[in-house]
Structure formats: structure tokens, C-alpha cells
Amino acid sequence: MTLVNINARRLWQRIMSMAEIGATSLGGSSRLALTDEDRCGRDLFIEWCRQANCEVRIDRLGNIFARRPGTDPECLPIACGSHLDTQPLGGRFDGVFGVLAGLEVLETLNDNGIQTRSPLEVCVWTNEEGARFTPPMLASGVHAGVYSLEYALARQDDHGISLAEALEAIGYVGEVACGSHRLGAFLEAHIEQGPVLEREQKTVGVVSGVQGSRWYRVSLTGQEAHTGSTPMLGRRDALAAAARLIVEVQAIADAHAPLAVASVGHIENVPNSPNTLSGQVELTIDMRHPRVEGQASMESALRQASAKVAEDTSVVVQLNRIMDTPPVDFHPDCIEVIEEAASSRGYRYRRMLSGAGHDACHLAGVTPTAMIFVPCAGGLSHNEAESAELNDLAAGTNVLLDAMLHLAEQPPEADQVRASATAAAECSQH
Amino acid sequence: MTLVNINARRLWQRIMSMAEIGATSLGGSSRLALTDEDRCGRDLFIEWCRQANCEVRIDRLGNIFARRPGTDPECLPIACGSHLDTQPLGGRFDGVFGVLAGLEVLETLNDNGIQTRSPLEVCVWTNEEGARFTPPMLASGVHAGVYSLEYALARQDDHGISLAEALEAIGYVGEVACGSHRLGAFLEAHIEQGPVLEREQKTVGVVSGVQGSRWYRVSLTGQEAHTGSTPMLGRRDALAAAARLIVEVQAIADAHAPLAVASVGHIENVPNSPNTLSGQVELTIDMRHPRVEGQASMESALRQASAKVAEDTSVVVQLNRIMDTPPVDFHPDCIEVIEEAASSRGYRYRRMLSGAGHDACHLAGVTPTAMIFVPCAGGLSHNEAESAELNDLAAGTNVLLDAMLHLAEQPPEADQVRASATAAAECSQH
After folding, report:
1. Domains and CATH numbers, chain A
2. Among A21, A38, A90, B400, fewest CB within 10 Å belongs to which?
3. Are residues A240 and B227, on separate chains, in Cβ contact within 8 Å?
């Protein structure tokens, strides 16, 4: 196979052009799902695809499939892609990079007159961010059979507008039945959204899976009282109890190092007055681990810690699991072909897990899937200041190119989809 | 001296009549300072005083002095009292009990035809709660020379109305120059607003002083990051650091037991999203101790703990003291005469410190002063559900009666005002 390189300047210019749509004052982008800005972004992408002689299909949820034909009409398409919607004040790279890296791969093949056996496709998944319509990764979830079409169409934004209405309004209700468009493989290139690659000065992350996450809602009920006239003994201070629990959450993550993360990012305190002891605290715990057994062990430790805090403080602690996303393992063939490409190109790379959720999580349930990460400055994402280096984006796109070329000739074994969680977890040093 | 008893039924009925003014749906009272409700409460009190043949004087800040004359025109008045303003949703007893207990003492002396050498007075202090105009205990502070008259008159409420305008509007600008009306002693009867008396089944608290309090504003600055994709190592999680600090605050109080209390009642977390590590936390620490050395030791421990948390978490911790109220010691003669009265009457009593601030704190700086506490249900105050027992209120009022009769014949030594903090702290078992 001839080694060809993608056109980094074209890739960068397209990312910057896309960022102009919904550009924010601090250099980011605001293209909430199915808004006019999202429509403009989609229109621009499709215009570029048509210029690259791609066939464009759209499904009932507005998912876009842009195809460069192959030589063997029996082959399923080898696909890549991501999303074009953003957070309300999002960055230029989250999602956009994966979509435009895919287009750049197709353009590069055009430029070099390279034919592939399997067709190649670039996908754009609707409403990945979940910032306008919850849950996130909604339309890729319908594609993978995780959610029904009806469920997705009925989702409403904060103004009561349904996803069906919003999709209709921007003219992106397609003909293709959701999930009917089968893919032979799916690769998603993405900025890491974490600090690992930058810290280790690696250029490429070979993503072997996505850790499982569970969210817990905790209500702590104490007794409001005067901070001055209430002795320490006999207090039922909900915030003091919450503080102990937050410290325990950190300890649980440390006890499950190095694979676990655990955090409390959200807390509400009532009445929240400097001289009144807290009567009520609500907080949300986010715990993640790449193995189901790890998740179970962390949950068990959390339940013990909650009971101990309740016993020691006389504060009533109610713990409810409100979300449970199991770990995802990507397809060994896809992981290997990405690693081989990174290695052959001489890039500094490492295997790693994704801490965040992506459309690839859903795709992995129905299609051989893996992801390619590139570094982002300071690990910062979901932020207008999100930043990535041209050279890193180009490297990730070259890896995507090589991997797709390889898979287009030797498609992965579909029967290995949903391999055991353990294998992927063990090959990660995350 | 003949042992006479106050009229508990009359006291109770007057407390209930006062509670009708600004009555709230849940059985409390809403008489914010210098509102129409406050005016009605003042008018009712003055009407009762005139029916009891008292002379009523009012100073420039609306502080009311109702006098029952004595036999020796050379003697300064032996005074008692508290306040009639309430929290926005306050209870029936906070402040009101102290004022109407004083009136009941005067009525009882009338009923029994008892003359006193010194005149007796009941005081009503303006804007004790600080709920409409900050700071609390404002007009007693001006009386004691802690604040200037101009400062007090310029205070504004949330609607930009000055205290001067509000006072004028309800017609309570008096002729007496603030601070010119000298008192020979001041006794304040009050519900405890804490759980100690109820827990120990005591009827009377002989209050020897008020603990000092310091407030600290703490800003913790970390780094926002994705909870899933940011490894535990290298995080700068402001809320995790805040939790450690709150736990340390509890430990500092425990290390200074049994005299110390310390609390965090107020916390703000940014961005407060379940899957984003906290970038910024603001919290307020309330630390109290009856001795200045204790306050200093707690502050030193707090500064060490903050530095340790900052070092361990890589979160920037800024600690600022925003309030410093030194401990107050009440006058030994006043304390003794209250204790003697409680003992003679056979009431279960204990010496204790006040955890909360009261007008008596300011009065103690210029006049021999002490306080009498009675239990309140569950220690609950600043709450519509505030509740106290008739028998306890009557007992506290009988103690007030006896103590005022004693002081009216043998006034306390004014040169012992502002005795050392240590003496009062050491006699407390709080």
C-alpha cells in the first residue's frame, strides 16, 4: 500500500470555516442540535461532500451518511465520523474534528486516485451533546437500537419544542429508516477531552474502550439550627456530613486506582446561610470504572461509606443510583489496525480508555468500532477555549486514513462485537 | 423582701396579642424593623406601658424607655428589655419575651404596691434582627457608642430606603439623644435559641457572657475538567478541597471542645454540573469561642488546615476574616443576682454562655449587664415554629423580677464593666 498523507492545511481551514457558524465572542462555537446554526453546519458539510463526489443519505433522525463508493458492491461501508452539534458555549474541535477528518480522508483518496474495495463513509450523528435534547448520543443510540425512534422524536428542549418539530424545521428528516443503514466498521476520531496525551507527550491515543459510569443522587437530611448556640455535640449538620461523604468518594477512587475515577461536581445546600447549620444537602456522585466488577466494588464501598457517615453524624443519607452506563469494549481488529497505523507512522501513541461518552459507544453494540484520540490543550473541552494543534489533528487524520484503507480491504470480524469488558480493560494503562 | 409572683396568664396573653401583629400562616410573626407592623407593635407596647402608669421616652433611633419611678431621684434606672422586631418569618418569643417580661415585672410591682429605690425601666431596642437593615443590634450599638448615629441613619434596606426614612415614616424619631439616657444596669431575658437547657431539663440559664465569633470567607480555585476523562492524579478539584476543609473545620472545633463551635453553613460551587470538576468554591466559616485566646488558636489551626489542603490538592485557597466580634463578659454583680434569684426560687438552672448575639452584648460595654435564658422547644428559633412553655417563661420572669428588685436597692458597681473575658468563660460549662 502506498503511504499517502492527508492535506493538513485543508483540514484546518475547514475546521475553522465550520467554527464560523455560530461563532462565539471568546473563539468557540454555539451550534445546539437542530437549530439554524446546526442546519448551516450540516449544509456546509454536505456541500463539501458533494464537491468530493460523495453520495449523501439521510435517515429519519437527520443522521447523515456521505459515501465514497468502493469497487466491491457486496462490501459494507467502512465508516467514520462524529457530530457537528456543540455545547451552548462549545469549542471548535469536539465532534467537528471527527467529521472533517473523515471528509479529509475521502478527499485525500480522491487527490491520489486511490480506489478501495469497500465503500467509505463519513457519518454525522444528530444530537450528540445532549445540551438541547437529553439524553446525549441520542440518534446514534437509535441507530444502534438502544432507543426507539418514537422516544427520540418525542424528546423536548427547554422550550417544549420536540426533536421531531426541530428536525422538521431545519429540513433534515431523511428517507432512510433508522438502523437500516448497516456499517462494516466505525472509527471515530476525537480530541481526548482529558490531559493524558498532553501530559505524556503522546500524539495519538488508541482507544480500546469506554469506561462504565454510574451516577448517584444523594440526599442528606439534617436539622437546621443556630451555628452559635448549638453545641457541637448533638448537631445534625447536613453539609458537614456531605463533606465527609465527598472525602470518602475520593478515597474510594484512590482505593480502586489506577482505573477508577470518582467525583462530586454538583451540590445544593439548604438554607445556605452562614449562621444556620445545614438542614438539607443534595449532591450527585459520578463514579467510573472500565470493568463492571470495578463499578460494583465502588458502589459497594459507597454504600458502606454512606451508612457510616449517617451513623456518625445522625444525618439521614439517602443514596439512589440514577444512571448506569456499562463499560464498552471496542473491537480488537479496529483497535489493532489503529495501533498499527500509529506505529507505522512513527507517532508517539498509547492505548487508553475514553473517560467520556461518544457516539462510538452506541455504534460498538452493532458494528466493529474503535476511536482515535488526539491531544487537546490542558485537556480542556466543553469550553470556548478548547484548543488543539494542527500537527496533532493531522496525525490523527493520517492514522484514520491508514486504518480505513486497511479495513476497506480486510473488514473486521463482526462476530467479535461486544467482546468481554475484561480484555479491553486489561490492555489499558489508563 | 416579700416574695411576689408575676402574673403568668397576663404575660402569656400579651405575648399572644403581640404575635397577632404581623401574624404568619404557620403561627409565627413577621414584624421587620420600622415597618407598619413594627409601628403597631410599638404602639401596643406603649399603650400597655401608659396603662401601667409608666413614663415613656424615645431616643433619636426609636429606642423606647418606659420608666416606673423610684423613691430616690439620684439613682440611675435599673433596666431590662429586648426587641420587638422579628425575622421575615420569625417566632413569637425571640425578643418579645424579654420586652413583655420587663413590662410584667412593672405590672406585678404595681399590683403589689411595691416601691423601689431606683427607678425601673423597660427598653425596646430598634433593629435588633438585622433582617431589614444590617448590621443586627444596630440601635443598641449606637446607644453603647459602637456605631455613630449618622452611620445608623444611613443604613438602607433592600429597596434603598434608609433607616432614617423608615423611622420618620412610622413616627418614631424621639427627642432623647442616643446614648445620653444612662442606665444603672441592664438585664435581658430571652429564649435560649439553642438546645442546652431543654436537653438538661433546666428552667433558667444564668448567662455569664457571649462567646466571640469570627467569620471567614474562603475562595478555593481549582480547574474545571471532565469528570470522566480526567484521571484522579493531577486533578485540581475545588469542591473536593472544600470538603476536606469543612471536615477540618469540624476537627478544629473538636480540638477546642467543649467551649468552641465551628460551622460551614454557606457554600457556592461553580459550575455545579454533575460531570464537570469544580473550578471554584466560595464558602463561609463561622467559628466561635468564649475567649480571645481560643479564637486565636482556632484561627491559627484554620490557617494551617487551609495551607495543608491547598498543598495536598493543588487548589488555591484564599482565606479572609470578614467579621470579628470579641467575647463579651457580663457583670459579676448582675450574674450573681440572677443566679441567687434562680436558686432562691428553687428553679433548675445552670450558668451558660450565649452562642448568639443580643442587644445585651452592646449594653455590656457601657452598663452592668447580664442575661436570663429560658428553654425553647428543640432549640429552634428564627423560625415560625419557635415555641416556649408558659411555665418556663413565667420562671424566667420571676427571676427577672427578683433580680431587678435586688439591683434597685443595691445597684451594681459600674467600674467592673468590661471585666476580663477569662472569668466568665471559666465559670461556664457550655
Report:
1. 8-210+327-426 (3.40.630.10), 212-325 (3.30.70.360)
2. A21
3. no
